[in-house]
Structures
1.
Amino acid sequence: MGFMIASSVPEWLTFAKVFLRHPRDVSSVLPTRKAIAKVLADRIAEKQPQVVIEYGPATGRLSREILSSGKLASGSSLVLIEKTSEFIEYLRATLHDPLVSIAHGSAVDVLDIIKQRGCGKADYIFSGIPLTLMAPEVANAIVANTHAALKDDGVFVQYAFRRNVEPILHRYFPSVRSDSQAYNLPPLTVYEARKHS
Ligand SMILES: C[S@@+](CC[C@H](N)C(=O)[O-])C[C@H]1O[C@@H](n2cnc3c(N)ncnc32)[C@H](O)[C@@H]1O
């Protein structure tokens, strides 16, 4: 059944409704706060055309912040990979930008998704997907494929509330740094994983 996008329904309510339908996949009742989305988007260095991928954009809070940061030069790509069909419908109805391409699928298929789009490997991959709530073999495959989908100097930025994602990142990435955004409630930890220290 289709999920109607009514312009009169606030974004947070759409998000909360989708959470109630898919609590395990969505894992958070509300979208990422704008201040947090900004802290995340600020990690992107200004470079000439670059490839940025986001796993689990939901209603696109972080995606919009990345676009409005002005860090993506023309010719860049922002590839959004979202598993939940209601969010795909919302993104297709509300997010129109020539740099954006929206893929309905799982982060585990990131390599096929970038191959189909011919955009090449990524400079940054952002993810708020709930790695620690997934079957371990799926979470492992996502992190392994993320490693393969990044350029040599690419960065995987994973953010998580209350959960320690470091062990799974360390399985594939030799360098993992984390910092806590304690002012956010619940506190948010942002992990940056790199192929080299
Ligand atoms: C905590 S929400 C992310 C919030 C969002 N980034 C924001 O800015 O508000 C987690 C998202 O990950 C998506 N998701 C869960 N598993 C996924 C997977 N394997 N691949 C892609 N998206 C996934 C969910 O549908 C949901 O949109």
2.
Amino acid sequence: MSLPVTDRTAGIVGELESFVDGLPAIDQHCHGVARGELGAAEFDDLLTESERPQPPGGNVFDAPVGVMLRTVCGPLLGLDPDVGGADYLSRRGELGASEVSRILLEAAGIDTYVVDTGFRSADITSPAELAGITGARSAEIVRLEAVAEALAEAGTGAAGFMDAFATELASQLQQAVGVKSIIAYRYGLDFDPARPEPASIRRAADECEKFAPLHSMTSSARDNRVGGISRPSAFAVLRLMTSSNLIGA
Ligand SMILES: [Zn+2]
């Protein structure tokens, strides 16, 4: 049942719509965009978060995400909404990756990007680069697991891990505006959110190092895609992060 729309309510709705349209949008969690040109296989790979290859004969452009991409982004690039995947890619090639990024990001109308820099950050634009494409603003969110992995990669052992982590995080938070964790992707949500005592953090770091020396676990941790099945060493890092309970603290 719908309520009768009077002139007055229609006027209020109209005012509200134009007010909302005029609000600068903040993307409160995003990542950079790809740098440079993408081949067809790379494009397919980035279009979905699935770790599995397309089924034989399958085409990601015919999956729901591909249909949305063609329908929404196609017209912005001067194409029909029902453009085929191959034509979409060749139009991208004609315009060039940086022009495509500019067109699509401008259409999104984002005023401020709040960027999680903890995933594939070497391959994609930094917060400043992302904002620079359209003259928007940016801020950084630090991914806790990435801080731990970087320390492990630098050779930080279990004994010094807790202090090193706190120092490094404090340093990064001089610039960044917040933190995030991907605990749910790698472990699930069934963890104790209570702040642990330092002794239990040390114990977790020791266990973690026994399981796999910290400096040797990063390559497998890093290779895991978001949402992927964790290998044991990455799992150990995440247990440690859970125990350190900086998540949501
Ligand atoms: Zn993210």
